[in-house]
Structure prediction request, 369 residues.
Amino acid sequence: MLRMQSKDKYKTIAVVVISLSAMTGCSGNGKAKQPAGGGFQAMPVKVMDAKAVPVNDASEYVATLKSRDSAVIMPQVEGQITQIFVHSGDRVSEGSALMEIDPLKQQATVKSQESARAAQQAQLNWAKQQYQRTENLAGAGVVSKQDLDQAKATLDAAQAQMDALNAQVREQEVQLHYYKVTALRTGIVGDIPVRVGDRVTTTTQLTTVDQPGSLEAYVYVPVERSPQLKMNLPVQILDSSGKVLAETKISFISPQVDNTTQTVLVKARIANGNDSLRQSQFIRARVIWGTHQNPQVPVLAVSRLAGQYFAFVAEPEAKGGFIAKQHPLTIGETVGNNFEVREGIKPGDKVIISGTQFLMDGVPVVPTS
Prediction:
C-alpha cells in the first residue's frame, strides 16, 4: 500500500510539473508544451539502446596473503642471545649470520672432547707399537700366539675408542655451529621480537626471512558455495577502492570444512612482481563463478521510489510515435557508471537517459540519439 501511495504521489508531482510547463508556454527547453488543440506535445528525449553485455557472476570475500617462500627462524639450541647482526628489513643471502647465542659452554665442551681424543690418540699409537713388537717376536718364536692375539685385541679396542671420540667431537662441533643462527635462504629479514640478553629455547621465534614476489591468497568460501568450487576458477585481488591489483586462478581446494567457521579454504597464487602486496595482509578476493549476458543502463537513467528501481523506456504506439513507459527494475551488479539489469529491460529497448525528471508514464516522447 505504501509503495502504491508513493508511486501515485510521484505521478501527481510529474503531472503538476508538466502542467505548469504547458501553462507557461515554454518551448525549446526539453519540456512538453500544450498545443492549441489540447493534449501534450511529444517531448524530445535522448535514448540508448539496451545491449546485452557479459557480466561476471562473482562473490567477494576477505582473504589473507601468505608467502610461499617464508622461513620462520627458530634456534636449534637453548641459551642467551649475545649478538644480533641484522635489522628488520635487511636483505640477506643464504648462510648469512643473523644472531649468535652464547657459545662459551659449548666451546668448552668441544675443547674437552678434543682433549679426550688427543689422549686416546696417544693410547692408539702405543697399542699399534705394542702390536708391531709382539708380531715381530711371535714371528721369531719368542712369544706365543696368545700374546699376539692379546696385542691385537688391545689395538682394536683403542681404535674403536678413537672412532667413538671422533664421532663425539664431530657431534659437538656441529652443535657449536647451531649457536650462530644463519639465514636458510636469500630474502628479507622480518620482525625481530627478541633482544640481546634474552634467553631463548628451541620453540622461540627469532625472526623470518621472506623471499619477495611469491604470495598465496587464502580465501575462505562458505560451505554453501563449495559445490561450485573447481580448480582454475578466476580470482581477482582487489584493494579497498575495488581496483584490481592482480588476477589469478584457484590452485588449491581443501577437502575439509573448517568446523568453526563452516568454510572451505581455497588458495590462489599471486606473482606480486612489483611488491605491492605484503605477507599476512588482509585483502578482498573476488571469486568469479562464471559470466552471463544482461543489459546495462546508466546510473543516471534509473530512479528509485519507495525502495523500487525504475527506468523509462520509449515504446512505440500502434498509431505511430513513442510514449514513455515506466519499467520497474531488478538491479544486479554496479559496473562502472552502469547498473546491471536482471529484470525489467531487455536487449533492444530504447532506454530514456535524459529529461527523466519531467516524465510520467504514458507521456508522448520523440527519441533522439
